[in-house]
């Protein structure tokens, strides 16, 4: 195990079970977001996301779920993801240990593989749980969305006395539509299951406050910690793979280099094309963004 980052944004390079047991203190975390391997055969940099038997996968999940429960403060919240076929097991396992307040459906309008002989998966489930039903953070005003029905058509709600126009804002329901991270998006990182910034923004704004500690035991491309930092929360991130640790150090602006290697965002194929045709030129900039259009002063 290797401890990286700083006091506000800790990164633990190593196995989640070991790091949770040995590094993260009990009852120290305000919010946990867990997006583990789903046991569906993704390739995490050579580490295969597939267990011999489903039972083995679930046994492993139950171990880190129990540890997460221990690490959460009494007023803490936890959001847990997995593949649709395993979520019912998580639900049953957690039901008598924590309060499950919602089963959120993260819906997107594209499936990885376009299924032709069955109904392709267009969503991922997220269990939203809190330790104490009457004592938890939920900043509803921070996450309001437009209430389309009624308010958009300026309808009057005659059930109210006196009648009132419909609210134009509401707390989101449990179906959340956010596009998946695609190659051409600015936020894209080289990770097979990167979660969108918008998804984490809603979770972190709703279920934590400035200065709180957000834990992500399977950090991947470090979206959770990246958003936590942007929203002035603190973070603890655990990740096994060195290449993803490097993404985290760069994305969180914690270091310019790792083991002597400069940390820079890889150029995308269409950016490389533009460099080779002279439309863009390369330049060195801290934390990796190092390409801009010729004669333009500000780069993204
Ligand atoms: C589903 S991905 C997380 C994606 C992340 N939420 C994001 O937005 O990029 C799961 C991650 O867990 C990491 N991982 C797998 N087994 C692990 C273990 N035993 N301990 C720590 N990390 C592990 C994988 O390398 C992978 O990056």
Structure characterization notes:
The chain has 300 residues and is of the alpha/beta class. The chain folds into 2 domains: 2-137 and 174-257, Vaccinia Virus protein VP39 (Rossmann fold, 3-Layer(aba) Sandwich); 264-300, no CATH class. It has helices at 16-22, 54-71, 87-95, 197-207, 223-230, 242-251, 269-276; strands spanning 2-5, 9-13, 29-34, 43-44, 47-48, 72-81, 99-107, 123-130, 145-146, 156-157, 164-165, 169-170, 175-177, 213-216, 234-239, 257-258, 261-262, 280-282, 291-293. A 9-stranded mixed sheet has the order 1-2-15-14-3-6-8-7-13, with helices on both faces. A two-stranded antiparallel sheet has the order 4-5. α1 runs parallel beside α2 (54-71). The chain starts with a strand and ends in a 7-residue tail after the last strand. The structure holds S-adenosylmethionine (SAM). S-adenosylmethionine binds at residues 15-16, 35-37, 44, 47, 191, 193-195, 218, 220-221, 223, 238-241, 244.
């Amino acid at each position: 195990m290797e401890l990286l980052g700083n006091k506000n944004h800790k990164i633990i390079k190593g196995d989640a079970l070991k790091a949770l047991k040995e590094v993260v203190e009990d009852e120290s975390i305000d919010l946990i977001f867990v997006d583990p391997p789903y046991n569906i055969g993704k390739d995490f940099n050579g580490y295969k996301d597939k267990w011999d038997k489903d039972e083995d996968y679930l046994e492993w999940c139950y171990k880190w779920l129990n540890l997460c429960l221990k690490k959460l403060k009494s007023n803490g919240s936890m959001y847990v993801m997995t593949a649709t076929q395993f979520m019912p097991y998580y639900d049953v396992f957690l039901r008598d240990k924590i309060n499950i307040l919602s089963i959120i459906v993260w819906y997107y309008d594209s499936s990885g593989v376009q299924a032709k002989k069955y109904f392709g998966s267009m969503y991922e489930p997220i269990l939203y749980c809190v330790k104490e039903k009457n004592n938890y953070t939920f900043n509803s005003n921070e996450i309001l969305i437009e209430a389309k029905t009624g308010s958009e058509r300026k309808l009057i709600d005659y059930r109210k006395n006196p009648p009132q126009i419909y609210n134009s804002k509401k707390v989101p329901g449990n179906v959340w539509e956010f596009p998946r991270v695609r190659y051409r998006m600015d936020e894209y990182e080289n990770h097979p299951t990167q979660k969108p910034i918008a998804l984490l923004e809603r979770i972190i704004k709703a279920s934590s406050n400035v200065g709180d500690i957000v834990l992500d035991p399977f950090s991947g491309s470090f979206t959770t910690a990246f958003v936590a930092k942007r929203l002035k929360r603190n973070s603890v991130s655990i990740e096994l793979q060195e290449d993803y640790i490097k993404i985290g150090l760069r994305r969180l602006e914690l270091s310019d280099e790792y083991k002597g290697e400069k940390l820079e965002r890889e150029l995308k194929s269409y950016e490389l094309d533009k460099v080779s045709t002279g439309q863009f030129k390369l330049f060195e900039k801290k934390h990796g963004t190092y390409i801009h259009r010729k004669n333009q002063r500000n780069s993204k």
